[in-house]
Automatic annotation (TrEMBL):
Domain Coenzyme Q-binding protein COQ10 START span(s) in chain numbering: 10-131
Membrane-traversing stretches: none
A family per Pfam: Polyketide_cyc
Protein name as annotated: SRPBCC family protein
Organism: Streptomyces viridiviolaceus
Alphabetical list of SUPFAM superfamilies matching this protein: Bet v1-like
Length: 152
């Protein structure tokens, strides 16, 4: 099992960062390889990913959640075994430190090679940078973009 850790500071209040992270169905907008997340209920999500041409599906369960502070999850079934925690720390009124720590158990040969080459670590670090860009470009966690009107 490999542990991946990445921290970014985002230019939004802690409540906004936390609320955006709980919009699981928007993860494909900033997470490479995530095709779709379906929220099944308040604690369970179904993920569809495609990495290196290989499609994987799995379910996750939120096992601990403290609003504006942390979310901890684990996989419950499927092709991927992982667990992790994302923490939100208020820096000041307009800045939040977001720290992600994940334990990932590569399942197939391709995933094990990718892990040994550091691909999983780089992908998570890239996802966190894209989360920073994504949230800072938004007016709020509802998905309304600053400076333009979205249809709906």
């Amino acid at each position: 099992m490999s542990t991946v850790k990445e921290t970014v500071e985002v230019e939004v209040p802690v409540h906004t960062a936390y609320n955006q992270w709980t919009q699981f169905e928007e993860f494909p907008n900033f997470m490479e390889g995530v095709e779709e997340i379906t929220q099944l209920d308040d604690r369970h999500n179904h993920w569809t990913t495609k990495i290196g041409g290989t499609r994987r599906e799995f379910d996750t369960e939120i096992v601990d959640q403290l609003p504006d502070e942390r979310i901890t999850w684990r996989t419950t079934s499927g092709d991927i075994q992982q667990k992790g925690t994302v923490r939100f720390q208020r820096v000041d009124d307009t800045h939040t430190r977001v720290e992600l720590v994940m334990d990932v158990e590569p399942s197939g040969v391709a995933e094990k090679v990718a892990d040994m080459l550091g691909t999983i670590d780089r992908r998570v670090k890239g996802d966190m940078r894209r989360f920073k860009d994504y949230i800072e470009q938004q007016g709020d966690e509802s998905g309304a973009w600053r400076g333009r009107i979205t249809p709906g």
